[in-house]
Amino acid sequence: MKKILVTYDMFREGFAELESKYEVTFPDGRDFTYEEVFEMIPEYDVLCSMFDFPVNKELIDHAPKLQMVANYAVGYNNIDVAYAVEKGIVVSNTPGPVTAPTADIALGLILDTARRITECDRKLRTLGKEMKVGVLENLGMPITGQTLGIVGMGRIGKALAKRARACGMEVVYHNRRQLCIEDETKLGVTYVSFEDLLAQSDFVSLNAPYTPETYHIIDESALKRMKPTAILINTGRGPLVDEHALVKALQEGIIYGAGLDVFEFGDYPLPELLGMDNVVLTPHIGTQITATRIEMARAVSDNVIGFLEGDRPVSRVLKP
Ligand code: GLV
């Protein structure tokens, strides 16, 4: 019987079918460490990894039976895909269930940063009656009629574009490939160069995968091209943004604010960001919904069963 190793603690109902068919090993109430997985992997045929678990050359070379890496995420920058593919290992991801919740968080961060929702909440709680209130206090920005620039027009970018259009925003986008005219018309979006997107947008949302090409796509020079009133939203991956350059740009008023669900250096933002009222920070909660967690587990399970039995489609990643 094929042996499947899951590196992370997860609601089991999404894995019920997989568990009924194969020998599946889960950690108990916590995630397995890299060292634990490294020790166990020689016995396993399939590895189900979380988006922050490194599936690197060293691990792959230590896994003589490994046929598949099924990632629990749409992103797969944690996996050395080129090496896995070279070794004949199939890699899969879970784009379906991730799309709407991530687009929702991006829209939430747009609204929150523009209207200073979290900032006002925090001030009311911490300052109480010392908080300055009144019709000329706590003024924010509109979103209706403003321009949203979406960097990366894949599934999440498109889902965000629909939400933004429904809120009356203009949407421009930049992507490796321009959409066909029918899709652009249907979504109501306009393709522009990356430079024009930075210059025109009131909000810039990063929805591109993290690859060597997109590393620090927002760096000091990109920030300088943005409007001084602009807000940067990142729900993709932290290293898309040079976080030190972002801190400086916010301190110097190069841009107005930021809404970040992901950070460059792991789970937490640079400490300077914690003290800024014009920044909203969330700890990678893009897909943090119970139903989504279960759907993503089901998507992982379907990918593995589809690969082993050929009875359903596999969301296969072919290139880094
Ligand atoms: C979440 O970050 C994902 O890549 O699915």
Task: Walk me through what this model shows.
- By secondary structure, the chain is α/β, with parallel strands linked by helices.
- The chain folds into two domains: 3-93 and 289-309, 3-Layer(aba) Sandwich (Rossmann fold); 98-281, Rossmann fold (3-Layer(aba) Sandwich), CATH 3.40.50.720.
- The protein contains 13 helices and 13 strands.
- It has helices at residues 16-21, 34-40, 57-61, 81-86, 95-115, 117-127, 155-166, 181-187, 194-200, 220-225, 243-251, 271-274, 290-309; strands at 3-6, 23-25, 46-50, 68-72, 90-92, 147-151, 170-174, 189-191, 203-206, 231-234, 257-260, 279-281, 316-317.
- It has a seven-stranded parallel sheet, sandwiched between helices. It has a six-stranded mixed sheet with strand order 2-1-3-4-5-13.
- Helix 8 links the parallel strand 7 and strand 8.
- Helix 5 (95-115) crosses helix 7 (155-166) and helix 5 runs antiparallel to helix 13.
- The chain starts with a strand and ends with a strand.
- The model has no long low-confidence stretch (mean pLDDT 97).
- The chain binds glyoxylic acid.
- The site of glyoxylic acid (GLV) has 7 residues, from loops.
